[in-house]
From TrEMBL:
<feature type="domain" description="Hemocyanin middle">
    <location>
        <begin position="171"/>
        <end position="442"/>
    </location>
</feature>
<dbReference type="InterPro" id="IPR014756">
    <property type="entry name" value="Ig_E-set"/>
</dbReference>
<keyword id="KW-0186">Copper</keyword>
<protein>
    <submittedName>
        <fullName>Phenoloxidase 3</fullName>
    </submittedName>
</protein>
<dbReference type="InterPro" id="IPR005203">
    <property type="entry name" value="Hemocyanin_C"/>
</dbReference>
<dbReference type="InterPro" id="IPR037020">
    <property type="entry name" value="Hemocyanin_C_sf"/>
</dbReference>
<dbReference type="Pfam" id="PF03723">
    <property type="entry name" value="Hemocyanin_C"/>
</dbReference>
<dbReference type="Pfam" id="PF00372">
    <property type="entry name" value="Hemocyanin_M"/>
</dbReference>
<comment type="similarity">
    <text>Belongs to the tyrosinase family.</text>
</comment>
<feature type="domain" description="Hemocyanin C-terminal">
    <location>
        <begin position="605"/>
        <end position="704"/>
    </location>
</feature>
<feature type="signal peptide">
    <location>
        <begin position="1"/>
        <end position="16"/>
    </location>
</feature>
<keyword id="KW-0479">Metal-binding</keyword>
<dbReference type="InterPro" id="IPR013788">
    <property type="entry name" value="Hemocyanin/hexamerin"/>
</dbReference>
<dbReference type="InterPro" id="IPR000896">
    <property type="entry name" value="Hemocyanin/hexamerin_mid_dom"/>
</dbReference>
<dbReference type="GO" id="GO:0006582">
    <property type="term" value="P:melanin metabolic process"/>
</dbReference>
<feature type="domain" description="Hemocyanin C-terminal">
    <location>
        <begin position="474"/>
        <end position="576"/>
    </location>
</feature>
<keyword id="KW-0732">Signal</keyword>
Length: 714
């Protein structure tokens, strides 16, 4: 730190007026404010001091000391350079207003801020000196909304493929506790709730099923542990942060990943609904239209820590009409049906209207789904944002449902429901209905246009290394194919957050002590028996999927019904030695596997499905029966480095190490992402496994032990 201070102080600021030729042939003066080159070491990697400064951008306490001489001049220079740009941003959202990512002006402000950040990321400078100085400046300005900053930053990093993508940051819950945890703040007067505060009084705020049960959430509250899980919520936010709607060049397969990531959540949600006795496990998709009735209400019991406003609850039986929507949203609603029809046409014809208004075949790479994804969601890379809507059907649906009732009832002060923001959306029951409609659209295309996969050639290539069997064992190694889930507690002490800032004059440390009840499971190991019939060492790639075996009437699912219910458990490459016909048992411990399908708080994996939700809850009456499938293919399916720790939490997140390529070459969700062949459509899974040599399956029982977790006392 000393060295940094000295070199920065000695340096001379370069804040020159340089001539710049505008398009019209004139010359305008623009300012360029940069950290002096002699205070950087352009070949050097990020310093520990800057790594720490970067981390502290996301913590409540400003990180100091700051080299004042340079900073004052730099800050002055930046203030002048970006004066108008910051005015434009703060006119869209002030620093103490409530932020909602699906609200148009806020989304625009994110884009504008990202643009400014990008200008200050020097792709040639691995030390990231200028970038970190500039980010720090943004934090210290005080007029940039913290949510705005945290949303714009990944967009800027992704755009520049910055090496900062891999740098540690605190988990989202530490940055924004009020986005995830009910009632950590009480308002409207700025006051922390009784169980949080200052000093050392540690009585925890309990977060469990009781938040929703007495409110409008009714029987749907049985799924509180899934929809309101703080890590599932932050996983969804992370996903959207790292797959931004705007980037200078397309992010490879982003539209396809939009489909697969959300499809996987829907399949898991269906399994959780079945485990809780719901017969409508794959909830019906909704197509919001005029006079549509939103039968179920939802109350998140969340209060935003920046604005001290509640997220607005929706009451049962709310209609989408002129009484419940502002005129702007009402016309948006009317547009939705037209947009939906335009997208529907693609799924029936395999043709898309491009930017020149020409009807062209959907690009078949790998199967057209990417193009549909890029126009369903708001995206700069939509093939025709005029015809398929600039905001995207999906974003409009969030926006309309998130603001139903809100703008018409002045007493609610014009704010948002949880569907309006990516950090909170998965809580609402209607998130799953919107996304099942999105999923239905992708499926219409896959079912109508794409052929079922072939079984032992072509799409299902036979390879010489095939799985003979798969099983799971519990951590003690004696219970075979019998896994247990249970309730657990996690305690967290958070030091405020970017959304709950200390007031001027506060000296005692601020703390929030939270006890979270969450679903958990006994750890287990996959044991896959692989036979290498080759003379050589071979690398193979393994995909693991799971789906419920029986429907709520205890009848076995046929393949047509079961395919959409498969959700990802993991995927990873394995190197097999030359075995001269011997068989090889591969043990994969779900905790230590390096492939990191799952991620946990801020550890090595910044983005990943929550580990504690890896298994569905199962059932307490021994009827939580699931099929577990291993699909083995040639190692060339995988482009990544097998040794990359968490570069490959990629199944949901692509790669977040600055290489945003999706390393697995097959269609996402393969081989369950299309319909089964006509011959197999009524058959059960065993028939498929018999016909596909590189597939193995087993049946796993998941028993839920429904006992309250032990209270934790600090
Ligand atoms: C500590 O918190 C509990 C529960 O909110 C409260 O009843 C108690 O008065 C507090 N004690 C102190 C010393 O602040
Ligand atoms: C809302 O409807 C659900 C059923 O969907 C019901 O369980 C709940 O009690 C209702 N809430 C109110 C306040 O009527
Ligand atoms: C419009 O929606 C409101 C709020 O859901 C409802 O009270 C009203 O009955 C609806 N009006 C018509 C004409 O459907
Ligand atoms: C495409 O058609 C729309 C509506 O007819 C029109 O507004 C737009 O200018 C056309 N775009 C091009 C590139 O011709
Ligand atoms: C699974 O194990 C539990 C005990 O952990 C036992 O009660 C149950 O009967 C077992 N179920 C099966 C299908 O083996
Ligand atoms: C298989 O599933 C389809 C779709 O749900 C259903 O229509 C059909 O009746 C099922 N076939 C059998 C033999 O159960």
């Amino acid at each position: 730190m000393h060295g940094f201070l000295v070199s920065a102080l000695l340096a001379i600021l370069r804040c020159a007026q340089i001539p710049y030729h505008d398009g019209g042939g004139g010359v305008v003066q623009i300012q360029v404010c940069t950290v002096p080159h002699n205070s950087r070491n352009s070949m050097a990697d990020i310093t520990n001091t800057n790594r720490e400064r970067y981390y502290h951008l996301f913590t409540p306490k400003p990180y100091g000391p700051t080299p004042m001489l340079v900073v004052n001049q730099l800050y002055k220079c930046w203030n002048e350079q970006y004066n108008t740009a910051f005015d434009s941003i703060t006119s869209k959202i002030g620093p103490t207003q409530m932020f909602a990512s699906f609200h148009g002006p806020h989304a625009k402000a994110v884009g504008e801020l990202a643009g400014i950040l990008i200008e200050n990321i020097d792709m040639e400078d691995p030390s990231n000196m200028q970038a970190i100085e500039f980010f720090d400046y943004i934090r210290r300005r005080g007029d940039i909304h913290p949510q705005l900053f945290v949303s714009a930053l990944p967009m800027a990093l992704v755009s520049t493929r910055s090496s900062l993508i891999g740098e540690p940051t605190p988990p989202l819950v530490e940055m924004f506790p009020s986005r995830f945890l009910p009632r950590v703040v009480e308002g409207p007067e700025i006051k922390l709730s009784a169980q949080s505060g200052r000093g050392t009084n540690k009585t925890c705020i309990k977060v469990d099923q009781h938040w929703g049960s007495t409110k409008t959430n009714g029987i749907e509250n049985r799924l509180w542990y899934f929809r309101e899980d703080l890590q599932l919520n932050s996983h969804h936010w992370n996903w959207h942060q790292f797959h931004p709607t705007h980037s200078p060049s397309p992010i490879p397969r982003r539209g396809e990943l939009f489909y697969f990531f959300h499809h996987d959540l829907m399949a898991r949600y269906a399994s959780e609904r079945m485990a809780n006795g719901f017969t409508d496990y794959f909830v019906e998709g909704i197509k919001p239209i005029v006079d549509y009735e939103l039968k179920q209400g939802y109350d998140a019991n969340l209060r935003d820590g920046v604005s001290y406003l509640n997220w607005v609850n929706r009451v049962n039986s709310t209609f989408l009409n002129k009484t419940s929507l502002s005129s702007k949203l009402f016309s948006k609603l009317k547009q939705q049906e037209i947009i939906w029809n335009h997208i529907y046409q693609i799924t029936q014809t395999d043709k898309v209207l491009d930017g020149s208004n020409d009807t062209v075949p959907l690009m078949p790479k790998p199967d057209g789904i990417n193009t549909i994804g890029e126009l369903f969601e708001s995206s700069q890379w939509s093939i025709n944002s005029y015809f398929y809507s600039d905001d995207g059907w999906h974003n409009n649906a969030h926006d309309i449902l998130g603001k139903v009732l809100v703008e018409k009832d002045q007493s609610l002060k014009k704010e948002y429901g949880v569907l309006s923001d990516v950090a909170t959306a998965v809580r609402d029951i209607y998130f799953y209905r919107i996304h099942n409609e999105v999923n239905n659209m992708f499926m219409r295309y896959k079912h109508k246009i794409l052929n079922p996969y072939e079984l032992s050639q072509g799409d299902h290539p036979y390879i010489v290394t095939n799985p003979k069997s798969i099983q799971v064992r519990d951590e003690r190694g004696h219970l075979v194919n019998n896994l247990t889930t249970f309730w657990n507690n996690r305690d967290m002490v958070l030091n405020g957050g970017l959304d709950i800032l200390p007031k001027p004059g506060d000296t005692d440390p601020l703390f929030l002590y939270v006890c979270l009840k969450h679903l958990d499971h006994q750890e287990f190991t996959y044991i896959i028996e692989l036979e290498n019939q080759d003379e050589k060492d071979r690398s193979v790639f393994v995909r693991l999927y799971m789906a419920p075996t029986y429907n709520p009437d205890r009848e076995r699912f046929n393949l047509t019904e079961q395919y959409p219910l498969f959700f990802a458990m993991d995927a990873f490459p394995i190197m097999l030695g030359r075995l001269n016909g011997y068989q090889s048992l591969v043990y994969i411990d779900v905790r230590t596997s390096t492939h990191c399908f799952t991620g946990n708080f801020g550890k090595t994996c910044p983005c990943g499905y929550p580990h504690h939700l890896l298994l569905p809850k199962g059932s307490d009456d021994n009827l939580g029966v699931y099929d577990l499938v291993a699909m083995v293919t040639d190692g060339s399916d995988y482009n990544g480095q097998p040794t990359d720790l968490c570069a490959s939490s990629y199944m949901h997140c692509s790669r977040l190490d600055g290489n945003l390529e999706y390393p697995d070459t097959r269609p996402m969700g393969w081989p369950f992402d299309r319909r089964p062949s006509d011959e197999l459509s009524q058959a059960y899974l065993d028939r498929l496994v018999q016909q596909v040599p590189n597939m193995a399956k087993t049946t796993v029982t998941i028993v839920h032990n429904d006992v309250e977790p032990k209270e934790h006392v600090i």
